[in-house]
Amino acid sequence: MSTQKVAVITGASQGIGAGLVDAYRQIGYAVVANSRTIDLAEADDLAVVSGDISDPATADRIIKTALERFGRVDTVVNNAGVFIAKRFTEYTAQDFETMVGINVAGFFHLTQRAIPLMQAAGGGHVVNITTTLVESALSVFPSALASVTKGGIASATRALAIEYAADNIRFNAVSPGVIKTPLHPEETHETLAGLHPLGRIGEVDDVARGVLYLEQSPFVTGEFLHVDGGQIAGH
Predict the structure, then answer these.
(1) Which Gene3D superfamilies is this protein grouped with (predicted)?
(2) Residue 234 domain-assigned?
(3) How many domains does the chain have?
(4) First to last CA, the chain
């Protein structure tokens, strides 16, 4: 088995996910990057697996690739997610299936497959990317399905931290505010900045720094780290 640590990152084609791929490589990790469509060039320390994370076959291929290329899985960052802002009665059955599939099933299939590898190796780390909206709702962003799906993952984070503490597998969550990614057109940035007490929207690097803090803090587990410009504290 290689001594180089390996991180698996979902939703890695752009935005926060792409920033996390760079961040982990910069601290010396090999990375297995996944997204439905992804055009990152593979390298000695980077393997790419395209596919829908809601499909259990994609999780199988991610784990297989990690073992074949690098021989291990040390960290999983469940970053893939979808947010559909609608009033609750306007959600469709397809909206529900999409959000549950990506936000919940993707987390379930990949994490469940990674845990035995971490147990065999004597430890590991899982980071779940959620959203502050699950704890602090905003009328301008109807987010009931985000609360059901990402909120469920946030709750599972603490349950799993306790369940696997004896195996030295840590589970943490990062809860971002609004982050400057392609999902938010530039003309919306000024309005979105007003949602945060610090008066700006976040940068991808802000989230990456938070994830790396948790990665490099071996005595931290079951933690929710809010990277949201003070949104969770109030307005």
Answers:
(1) NAD(P)-binding Rossmann-like Domain
(2) no
(3) 1
(4) 50
Question: Smallest Cα–Cα separation from 24: which of 38, 16, 222?
Answer: 16
User: At 93, which amino acid appears?
Assistant: A
Whether 1 is covered by a domain: the verdict is no
The identity of residue 172, as a single letter, is N
- For residue 179, give both structure tokens: 């982050």
235 in a structural domain: no
Contact 201, 180 (CB under 8 A): yes
Output the domain CATH number for residue 217.
Answer: 3.40.50.720
The 10 Å Cβ neighbour count of residue 183 is 13
Q: Closest by alpha carbon to 180, among 198, 199, 206?
A: 206
Owning domain of residue 213 = 6-229
Q: What is each CA distance from 118 to 66, 74, 78, 115, 159, in whole angstroms?
A: 13, 6, 16, 5, 17
pLDDT digits (tens, 9 = 90+) for 144-195: 888 889 888 988 999 999 999 999 999 999 999 888 777 666 767 777 777 7
